[in-house]
Design a protein that fits this description.
Blueprint (H helix, E strand, L loop, with lengths): L1 H17 L2 E5 L6 E8 L5 E5 L1 E10 L2 E10 L11 H12 L11 E13 L2 E10 L2 E12 L4 E9 L16 E12 L2
Antiparallel strand pairs: 1-4, 2-3, 2-10, 4-5, 5-6, 6-7, 7-8, 8-9, 9-10
Length: about 190
Amino acid sequence: MKKIIFVLGAIALALSGSHAQEGLQINTAESSLKWMGEYTFYFGGHEGFIGLKEGELIMTNGEITGGHFVIDMNSISNTDITIEDAKKSLVDHLKSKDFFNVKEYPESRLVITGISYSDKTHAEIEAVLTIKNISKSIRFRAEMDPDKKEINTKFKIDRNDWGVNFNYMLKDEAISDAIGFHINLIFQ
């Protein structure tokens, strides 16, 4: 009987060691999520930042294997307009029902569901992005620097897939369906 318990204990110990997981908290003050929106028929657009409320990366045997992030949609800002009234007008419009409706949907989420590494510092990430309670799968490439505890990525989404459907009726004011994101995550 003692041999069976010893063998079962050894197997459990071996299995738990082979899948050691560790949660790494995101430094929300040092990390950044930049957004970029462009006009459809001429050069130009707007950009700014959205704050991360919280986030965690999951490490398994020394590699990032998952994670989740909560995005504070009320923190959306603009960085390219210098006239304060115009800047406030754009940010208020982005927060309105025309775009992100932050009163009803104050948070968005990104959950990493899979990672395929091409080498130690480059990977393709599969994730589920939730905006306005609409969840869609996305894929993007990321660059990781384990020594700096940093991940960088850039990707675009079609805003219509998440119910962000506003557009001007004038062709010269038409907004591209693509929203670009540049994310820099610093983890602890």
